[in-house]
Amino acid sequence: MKILSCKQQREADAYTISHESILSINLMEKAASLITDAICRRWDKARRMIVFAGAGNNGGDALAVARMLFLKHYPVEVVFFNVTGKISEECLTNIRRLKECGFANFTEVSSQFDPPKLTRNDIVIDGLFGAGLNKPLSGGFAAVVQYINASQSTVVSIDTPSGLMGEDNTYNVRQNIIQADLTLTIQLPKLSFLFAENEEYVGEWEVLDIGTSQEFMKNVTTPYYITEEAKVRSLIRPYKKFAHKGMRGHGLLIAGSYGMGGAAVMAAQACMRSGIGRLTVHTPICNHNLVQTLVPQATVEDDLHERFFAEPTDLDNYQAIAIGPGLGQEEITAKTTIEQLDSCYVPTVLDADALNNLSVYRNFLNRVPKQAILTPHVKELERLVGRCSNSYERLSKAKELSSYLQCYIVLKGAWTTIITPEGNCYFNPTGNPGMATGGSGDVLTGILLALLAQGYPQEAACRLGVYVHGLAGDIARERQGVISMNAADIIEALPEAWKKLTETK
Ligand SMILES: NC(=O)C1=CN([C@@H]2O[C@H](COP(=O)(O)OP(=O)(O)OC[C@H]3O[C@@H](n4cnc5c(N)ncnc54)[C@H](OP(=O)(O)O)[C@@H]3O)[C@@H](O)[C@H]2O)[C@@H](O)CC1
Ligand SMILES: Nc1ncnc2c1ncn2[C@@H]1O[C@H](COP(=O)(O)OP(=O)(O)O)[C@@H](O)[C@H]1O
Ligand SMILES: [K+]
């Protein structure tokens, strides 16, 4: 699914209107009817609905929703802000239609505003600004937003919380953005909905399909996508009847140190559950028995060192390599990691301490093999690119790093983002907060190693691996609950996740 900028969303509306012979006002009517349904599904007529409408088309949506709720006998009040005298045509039509229905509870604000009392039981419908917002809110609008935010009412935003930019909010004034409990967004989510720091504004969100032109959607270009299950399924390659383990690749996992053998174990177990032919784990001597016992399917290759990764190993026999889980950050390990990179001629995953070690020696960053997959969480990324003040900046810096190194970056978190060297960003929809616990990232590294070893191209491996990892996390949550689930449960859920993705529907 493509994610469009607000400007593109407005172009999509305009294109749909001119090419699908639908009038602008009717497209708005469609949107308003879906929004009304979504509201009526959640709240009954005991709830007072207070509609705040702006003078643009977002306000037009809100006024149409007010009419529809009124006709369904909800108690509705409308506050319409007409401060410049510039009202969109569709907004005007909806004011007229509302009044024609006999609706009288209508306050028009042009300068002085005496706000209605908002109580815990009320539903505020925020239709002040949508995709047309072009600067941070200030003055009277800022005061209205702050008034709504300070109330105990439930807030439903139409299309986007008023005041929130669709993409970059670096220069926004955060206290002047509506804090919605629910955002009913039209056609597609906005990029800014996918950023952690905007959760307090967007709340829960639901996408309403108003039937934007498919042709427009097909041709419009954007670097931002949400990965869909159908796409992921299409990436999976079935095994041939005469498949043998040689065809499914031999991978090398360089992982573990004294006290962090578990990371090597979890990555290896996840790898062995993701279709790899053969796996060798290179780990310090102290972890030999642990790995051998807990992952008997894998071969163990001892490092020369008792406790740390201290000697680069020969990579000739492998189709893919993953370095990092639980490696530690000893000086010797950092140097060895960098030395090891020079011989990584096959697809490579760099995770966790491999990235932390690189961030200590940033001048060696250019030794990262081209096309490598880097899997940092937010902190690990910032160690590489410097502190970022928000998610948009972080994403921009990750894109720069990916382009500079010509490698793939898997920026982990909710909505894990896969960034390609060409600058495309694929947001992953699976996964849940139960995965925010030690070891979950190691599991992902194991999955990615398995896919690369089987010959999946980097982009496909990232999109498929991250999706199945999150899906296994969602299955683990079903089984164990969000509090108790841990990384071992994600591994245990992998077979079901893979089965689900390969079963015909
Ligand atoms: N048929 C359709 O087209 C459909 C449209 N749909 C709906 O339309 C919405 C987009 O509508 P829109 O383009 O009219 O923009 P909207 O967000 O209402 O605001 C525009 C006004 O705000 C003003 N303004 C901007 N920033 C400001 C600020 N900081 N402080 C003060 N003023 C500010 C700006 O003024 P300007 O600066 O341009 O003079 C302009 O007058 C979209 O989100 C969806 O809800 C759906 O129903 C689907 C069908
Ligand atoms: N709130 C969340 N929603 C979805 N996925 C999450 C969430 N929190 C964490 N995850 C996933 O869990 C994994 C955690 O990885 P990481 O931070 O490297 O943990 P560790 O280093 O402990 O293994 C990542 O793949 C991340 O995307
Ligand atoms: K809005």
TrEMBL record:
E.C. code: 4.2.1.136, 5.1.99.6
Binding site for K(+): 58, 126, 162
Entry GO MF terms: ADP-dependent NAD(P)H-hydrate dehydratase activity; ATP binding; metal ion binding; NAD(P)HX epimerase activity
Domain YjeF N-terminal: residue ranges: 9-218
Biological role stated in the UniProt entry: Catalyzes the epimerization of the S- and R-forms of NAD(P)HX, a damaged form of NAD(P)H that is a result of enzymatic or heat-dependent hydration. This is a prerequisite for the S-specific NAD(P)H-hydrate dehydratase to allow the repair of both epimers of NAD(P)HX. Bifunctional enzyme that catalyzes the epimerization of the S- and R-forms of NAD(P)HX and the dehydration of the S-form of NAD(P)HX at the expense of ADP, which is converted to AMP. This allows the repair of both epimers of NAD(P)HX, a damaged form of NAD(P)H that is a result of enzymatic or heat-dependent hydration.
Protein family: In the N-terminal section; belongs to the NnrE/AIBP family.
The protein's name in its UniProt record: Bifunctional NAD(P)H-hydrate repair enzyme
Taxonomic path: Bacteria, Pseudomonadati, Bacteroidota, Bacteroidia, Bacteroidales
